């Protein structure tokens, strides 16, 4: 059965994971975010109940 032959596919999988882990991932993680999180406390808004005209 050719599906069980790991000859070319195992090498391709290992090579692609190594490429991602060693080359692409550090380049992606080196980017600085354009909108960094801030330490502001969120504002709390006071919710008033809705007055229904038919009740």
Automatic annotation (TrEMBL):
Family, as annotated: Belongs to the ATPase protein 8 family.
Subcellular location: Mitochondrion membrane
Protein name (Swiss-Prot/TrEMBL): ATP synthase complex subunit 8
Superkingdom in the source lineage: Eukaryota
Main location: mitochondrion
UniProt keyword annotation of Ion transport present: yes
Alphabetically ordered keywords of this record: ATP synthesis, CF(0), Hydrogen ion transport, Ion transport, Membrane, Mitochondrion, Transmembrane, Transmembrane helix, Transport
Compositionally biased region (Low complexity): 37-47
């Amino acid at each position: 059965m050719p599906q069980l032959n790991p000859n070319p596919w195992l090498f391709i999988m290992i090579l692609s994971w190594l490429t991602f882990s060693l080359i692409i991932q550090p380049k992606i993680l080196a980017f600085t975010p354009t909108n960094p999180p801030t330490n502001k406390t969120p504002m709390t808004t006071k919710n008033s109940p809705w007055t229904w005209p038919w009740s």
